[in-house]
Write a structure and sequence with these properties.
By secondary structure, the chain is mainly β. It has a domain of 108 residues. 8% of the residues lie in helices and 34% in strands. The protein is built from two helices and six strands; from the N terminus they run ββββαββα. Strands 1, 2, 3, 4, 5 and 6 form a six-stranded antiparallel β-sheet that branches. A hairpin with a 5-residue loop joins strand 2 and strand 3. The radius of gyration is 17 Å and the shape is globular. The protein starts with 23 loop residues before the first strand and ends in a 20-residue tail after the last helix.
């Protein structure tokens, strides 16, 4: 089950590398999801402010040279409305629409075929970022290429409050 953290109003990525992941199609593994509660933002095509709950997914993949990478999906409103970005994303990825009670954390460890493109920032012309432009289920013949999520975990900084030192763990 996803453990939702208090909202920090920060959409900062936890990917350690500042490098732009390469463009192309890759077999990837969902290595983590991140939920944010109570984020204040302006409504679509409006100046009205709304408070929403958001989610995003981190994927790990290996490029053609064997280098591991991480990429984050865009933030999507936690909504099961048929037109919601999250529903469209999950339907493309899973092949079906999730139902009520769906846990976004259940996607951790699941494989996906992703297509990455480079998109120029609208706010900062000349600056580019990587975007997951397409996602699909992994074909049966490529299922063996999906790597364990833990293999890519070192590509992300720990979440605030996560312990990385085994001495901090309870002794029982």
């Amino acid at each position: 089950m996803a453990i939702l953290q208090p909202n920090t109003n920060s959409s900062k990525s936890r990917i350690k590398s500042g490098e732009l992941p390469p463009k192309g199609r890759y077999i990837a593994t969902c290595i983590e999801n991140e939920d944010q509660l109570g984020v204040e933002r302006t409504k679509f095509e409006s100046s009205e402010v709304e408070r929403v709950d958001l989610t995003s997914f981190y994927f790990g993949f290996t490029d053609r040279n064997g280098k591991p990478w991480a990429i984050r999906s865009r933030e999507m409103k936690l909504s099961l409305h048929e037109k919601a970005a999250l529903v469209k994303f999950l339907k493309s990825w899973r092949g079906s629409i999730p139902g009520a009670g769906f846990d976004t954390a259940s996607m951790i460890g699941q494989g996906a075929e992703i297509r990455i493109e480079h998109v120029e920032s609208q706010r900062t012309p000349g600056r580019y970022f990587a975007n997951i432009s397409d996602i699909a289920p992994v074909d049966d013949e490529d299922a063996g290429k999906v790597k364990p999520a833990l293999q890519y975990a070192p590509l992300l900084t720990p979440r605030t409050g996560d312990s990385v030192d085994s001495e901090d763990k309870m002794p029982f």
